[in-house]
Specification:
By secondary structure, the chain is an alpha+beta fold. It is built from 17 helices and six strands. A hairpin with a 5-residue loop joins strand 1 and strand 2. Helix 2 runs antiparallel to helix 3, helix 5 crosses helix 8 and helix 6 packs across helix 8.
């Protein structure tokens, strides 16, 4: 094979079509080397041109397709007179289109009426900006005040929080700002170090109860997480901080004799204290929370059960429940219905705290919190042999009785002694 033919074969040996063309050329040239080289060069040129066409044509088709897609997208959406509001031509539904934190967001306004879409767009845009923290100028929070402001906005915008919980969070945010470490300027959130946070955590644990301290740590971590998400802070200086273990306190509940003595002492006082005594008995016989009793209506009390709704904000877990009417509760309701219209609220007082405290003081008994009456109901149910999941359901617990087992099983010493006497080994 001539040298030129070998070089050409090496150059295009990976292309089958080229080899076929060269073979045809060899057959046609009749062994003339000069004619062979000329035809080979022409074949290579044509093949290269064909290859370039195969590469360029799809790219041109892709650009044409992208242009058609972009044109179709523009034809799908229609601008309106309201800022941030677009209309989908195919469905007729209005959408919000806005830039939040540098990202284009498009969300349905769930309406085909322009007047409604304008108002929905304003509310949705306000909520999105509040959640994203864009109410602050300058983007990422660089100071403690900015981080707390973002957290406060998110708390106010959270519809799942009850008002009492929201107020508690406001107070804790104020405490967190007041207890900020002096070694770290408030205008330098990025300068936080693990040592600074350890010093802050030590002082916080000394100044507040374990529950309040753990809540403050939760908000600090939220602020740090927010700063890290926006790039104002790289490392987490709170990663080594551990929540305080909350000690379990033993419940000092009154005996049955002491409870009835307290109720009788309250009834011997003013008429208002008589209503307070009814409140105390009602809570001890139902296990309801004080706030649930405050919003209880007569129409919620049936023949056998009491429907617990918890008022406007609902119960603690936002779920209604039913509490059975035990014999002691039936007797109390019979006395309360006598000479009563039984319309509207069952109790008009908020909490019998003062009357309960004064009665315990007159009898020389240990101070009893109002919530202890709920614990008294649960403990009495346990001693009566009611299974834990059942009375946990009456209390409104959603854990199947796990919390009740931890709280009430070892509460009564005398009950534990009676149960221990029943344990024998058959001798």
């Amino acid at each position: 094979m001539p040298t030129t033919q070998m070089q050409t074969s090496v150059r295009i040996k990976n292309d089958t079509r080229a080899r076929l063309i060269i073979s045809c050329v060899n057959g046609d040239c009749g062994g003339n080397i000069a004619q062979y080289e000329a035809l080979t060069t022409t074949a290579c040129f044509l093949l290269t041109t064909a290859f370039d066409h195969r590469r360029v044509a799809p790219a041109m088709a892709t650009r044409e397709q992208d242009g058609k897609t972009e044109t179709s997208k523009r034809q799908l959406w229609e601008k309106t007179a309201a800022q941030y509001v677009l209309r989908n031509k195919s469905s007729g539904t209005y959408y919000l289109r806005a830039k939040i934190r540098g990202r284009i967001i498009r969300k349905s306004l769930d309406t085909k009426k322009f007047a409604v879409a304008k108002w929905n767009a304003v509310e949705m845009l306000r909520t999105l900006r509040a959640v994203a923290g864009t109410v602050l100028k300058g983007g990422a929070p660089s100071t403690l005040a900015e981080a707390l402001a973002v957290l406060r906005v998110r708390i106010e915008a959270d519809p799942s929080l009850k008002e009492s919980t929201r107020q508690s969070y406001r107070e804790e945010l104020d405490c967190m700002k007041a207890g900020w470490p002096a070694a770290v300027p408030e205008d330098a959130l990025s300068r936080l170090s693990a040592r600074d946070m350890e010093e802050w955590w030590k002082k916080t644990c000394e100044a507040y109860s374990p529950q309040r301290a753990n809540h403050l740590l939760m908000f600090v971590r939220r602020a740090v997480k927010l700063a890290r998400e926006q790039g104002a802070l790289i490392a987490d200086p709170t990663s080594e901080l551990k929540p305080v273990k909350i000690p379990r306190t033993r419940l000092e509940l009154p005996t049955r004799e002491q409870f009835f003595a307290v109720v009788e002492s309250m009834r011997q006082q003013t008429v208002r204290n008589s209503e307070s005594a009814d409140f105390v008995e009602f809570m001890a016989y139902s296990g309801m929370r004080p706030g649930e009793i405050q919003h209880l209506l007569w129409e919620h009390i049936g023949e056998d059960v009491i429907a617990v709704y918890g008022g406007k904000e609902g119960t603690k877990n936002r779920e209604p429940r039913k509490v059975p009417i035990i014999p002691a509760m039936a007797d109390l309701l019979a006395r309360m219905r006598a000479g009563n219209t039984c319309v509207g609220r069952v109790f008009w007082i908020t909490k019998p705290r003062d009357a309960l405290r004064n009665a315990c003081k007159r009898l020389g008994l240990a101070h009893q919190r109002i919530y202890n009456l709920r614990h008294l109901f649960a403990t009495t149910c346990l001693e009566a042999g009611v299974d834990v999941p059942t009375f946990a359901m009456w209390l409104g617990h959603k854990d199947g009785g796990a919390l009740a087992m931890k709280t009430y099983v070892q509460n009564r010493t005398e009950h534990s002694a009676r149960m221990a006497a029943k344990v024998t080994f058959g001798r």
